[in-house]
Design goal:
Layout: E1 2-4, H1 5-8, H2 19-29, E2 33-39, E3 42-47, H3 61-72, E4 99-108, H4 117-125, H5 133-145, E5 150-154, E6 157-165, H6 167-170, H7 177-182, H8 190-205, E7 210-218, E8 226-230, H9 231-238, H10 244-253, E9 257-261, E10 264-268, H11 281-292, H12 314-325, E11 329-330, E12 336-337, H13 339-345, E13 363-364, H14 369-379, E14 386-395, E15 399-409, H15 412-429, E16 432-433, E17 436-437, E18 446-455, E19 458-463, H16 465-470, E20 477-484, E21 489-490, E22 507-516, H17 521-530, E23 535-544, E24 553-562, H18 571-587, E25 590-592
Helix pairs in contact: 4-5, 5-8, 12-15, 17-18
Length: 593
């Protein structure tokens, strides 16, 4: 919407107020001014329509002038009044579904009288072209007071229709300057301002013009909104206690009728603010805040209290680590186990059910392993390899919380390594304290060739073929891990270590070394890492066994990453680091193939 400063000057004096100041103050307290242009010595402000969609009273120069008069404490000129013609009938028809009020003026005018240059110039500056005197007067009135009207001309006779439409109906019409204002919800009293201004301008421009009749049909007059709010509520929301005199001054300047009785403020809003704009106590608080000045309200420094995030239970942390990071799928099984699986796994189940779901399932599970094997057998009908886990209660000598992991696939060695990787993942991301993977647990279900104790409570191993057959698994291999969560402990806080990212390119090379089975991968990795100062990381690539290799040996492939310190590495520097890594590995019992 465009607003002319010269036009505003008809209603409120603005000496000494620069365009920048006007734009700033309006934006801060009333509507958003997007900018302004200088047109023929006038200043035309561009106002964002979205910022005043709830303020139908501002869709005209007089409404903006009223706001400026309140902001600056300046007098507001009254709109001109005119003698109204006698009442007649038959000029217009009203539809209750479309209209709240419709006012019609019957006039005679000399069609040869041109529109004054002042009116044409002001309409042009706000984007409205000039057509003829009657149409220009109707447009001028709309841009002045925000009330649209329609002119029906027949020779020198015209009927000016000033409707107040139902907003929902106005939205169905073609979008024009008039419909934009009607759909915001105009008050019915504004039609009188439009009629008076039209008749006043017409009589000044064409003294010979007459107005023989008027028809006024009011279907639903706008009722002034009444609102009550306590002074304590205003103080609570604003953060300060405004003097009663200041409250009365602001609200009366806005056109409200105000009384203070004790601690209660009673406000009767003006008709132009009673179409949904002012209806709640918080609306009154907002008016006081914006006119008093948001920048004048106290702004205490916020107090930010950092509360440590409560740690999730270990069982939840393990679930999230295995599902989100380990790629495993959680399963839920019943708390009882099949007798033949308990026997195959060598598990004693001391807790029995009085009313079991089946004769062979009368004992509560002492371990998650039997049920995981049963779930694996069901899934191997559809998938060749997968990873599943369960966190739940087991019933041995006492109730304990346990976490069980099962990995199924064709390669047992690969499954065992992946199982160990999942244990390391849990240890690292769940911040377990004092977890040691060493020793050989004595478990009936564990394959003696691939088993490992997890101290303080747990074990991992490949499952014996006889146990797999008892579970109905006739192909592939299965690796299992079980942890007693009640016996595990976590660090009190996470250890964060900042490692800067290098700004120089890293270099890496692969090595395949021959190592005896007695030489563990951990020794190979630690030896290569400590062999040279440039070694940043040593990663496992793969393992190879063949009849051509010496008995009891395997070929290990590792990738060594070098990180430069001061300059990009040269070929000779990389070769030197490689030689030192090989020399260190050979001393540890792993020589280059």
């Amino acid at each position: 919407m465009k607003i002319s400063r010269d036009w505003l000057a008809d209603y409120v004096p603005l000496p000494g107020h620069s365009p920048d100041q006007l734009a700033h103050d309006l934006t801060l307290k009333t509507v958003e001014v997007e900018g302004y242009d200088l047109v023929d010595g006038d200043v035309v402000f561009e106002i964002d329509n979205k910022s005043l969609t709830h303020r139908p009273d501002l869709w005209g120069h007089y409404g903006i002038a009223r706001e400026l008069s309140v902001l600056y404490g300046l007098p507001l000129a009254a709109l001109p009044r005119a003698a109204r013609p006698p009442a007649v009938r038959g000029l217009v028809q009203a539809d209750p579904a479309w209209h709240r009020r419709i006012l019609a003026l019957q006039c005679t005018v000399d069609s040869s009288v041109p529109t004054p240059a002042l009116l044409r110039d002001r309409l042009r500056r706000v984007g409205q072209p000039s057509r003829n005197l009657c149409a220009d007067l109707s447009a001028y009135v709309m841009f002045a007071v925000g009330q649209p009207s329609e002119v029906r001309v027949s020779g020198d006779a015209l009927v000016l229709e000033i409707p107040t439409m139902v907003p929902s109906r106005a939205r169905r019409r073609a979008r024009t300057e008039a419909s934009v204002r009607q759909e915001k919800g105009l008050d019915t009293q504004r039609a009188d301002q439009a009629a008076d201004l039209f008749l006043h301008l017409l009589s000044e421009i064409d003294p010979s013009a007459t107005a023989p009749g008027e028809e006024d049909i009011v279907l639903a007059a706008t009722q002034r909104a009444e609102i009550e709010v306590s002074l304590a509520e205003i103080e609570r929301r604003l953060g300060i206690r405004l003097p009663g005199s200041e409250i009365l001054r602001i609200l009366r300047a806005l056109g409200c009728t105000v009384e203070i009785t004790g601690e209660l403020l009673h406000v009767v809003a003006p008709s132009w603010r009673s179409t949904g704009d002012l209806s709640l106590p918080v609306d009154i608080v907002e008016e006081l805040a914006r006119i008093h000045g948001f920048d004048a309200l106290p702004a205490p420094r916020p107090v930010v209290e950092l509360v440590p995030r409560p740690r999730l239970p270990l069982s939840r942390q393990i679930r999230e680590a295995l599902a989100a990071r380990g790629g495993a799928t959680e399963v839920l099984t019943y708390p009882w186990s099949a007798d033949h699986l308990l026997t195959a796994c060598g598990l004693d189940a001391p807790v029995r059910l009085d009313h079991p779901p089946a004769p062979d399932r009368a004992r509560l599970r002492p371990s998650l392993l039997p049920n995981l094997l049963e779930a694996a057998a069901a899934n191997l009908r559809y998938y060749d390899e997968f990873s599943i886990f369960e966190v739940g209660t087991v019933f041995a000598a006492a109730e304990r919380t346990s976490a069980g992991i099962l990995l199924a696939g064709p390669d047992g060695v690969e499954l065992f390594r992946r199982a160990k990787g999942l244990v390391e993942l849990i240890r690292r991301h769940c911040h377990l304290a004092a977890v040691d993977l060493s020793g050989t647990p004595d478990l009936t279900w564990a394959d003696p060739s691939a088993r490992l104790a997890i101290r303080p409570a747990g074990a991992m191993a490949l499952v014996r073929p006889s146990v797999l057959r008892a579970a109905g698994i006739d192909r592939g291999a299965v690796a299992c891990v079980e942890l007693d969560l009640d016996a595990l402990r976590t660090h009190p806080s996470r250890e964060n270590r900042y490692v800067p990212v290098g700004d120089l390119p890293e270099s890496d090379f692969d090595l395949s070394v021959l190592a005896a089975d007695a030489v563990p991968w951990s020794l190979v990795a630690d030896t290569a890492t400590q062999a040279h100062a440039l070694v940043q990381q040593v990663a496992y690539v793969g393992e190879y066994r063949d009849a051509k290799l010496p008995a009891g040996h395997r070929s290990l492939t590792l990738r060594v990453t070098l990180r430069p310190r001061t300059a990009t590495l040269t070929a000779s520097e990389i070769a030197a680091a490689r030689s030192e890594v090989l020399a260190a590995l050979e001393r540890a019992g792993a020589r280059l193939r």
